[in-house]
Write a structure and sequence with these properties.
alpha/beta; Nucleotidyltransferase, domain 5; 5-stranded mixed beta sheet; globular
Amino acid sequence: MRLMGLDVGSKTVGVAVSDAIGWTSQGVEIIRINEDDQEFGLDRVAELVDKYQVDGFVVGLPKNMNNSLGPRAEASQQYGQRLEKQFDLPVDFEDERLTTVEAQRMLTEEADISRRKRKKVIDKLAAGLILQNYLDRKGKLTRI
């Protein structure tokens, strides 16, 4: 079962996909969106769903540190509802607290790349971490 992981922001959506057997995730790209103008990049998501033969989605859920849901988490849930409606595929959510922080740390400590270059890949890497955390947590046979 191949899954697509999404790190949804107000301006971009980081995209990752799992391998065909659902063991590992790989960042794919960053889709530009504009929440204010109701532009959600679903046409590009559709192209990637077809290209990678995706069977379901994992959307990052940016919970507050006290485990409550704020406006960004609600926006992610709404994005998940749009995905379910358009693609008729299952959507699950993965707590993404600190994944962007982890991605930034990885890029500064391990990759040692400039801040400008980090901005170009951070959402894609965060999507990969969200999906990998989901795969690791759920185990190979119990996903979606």
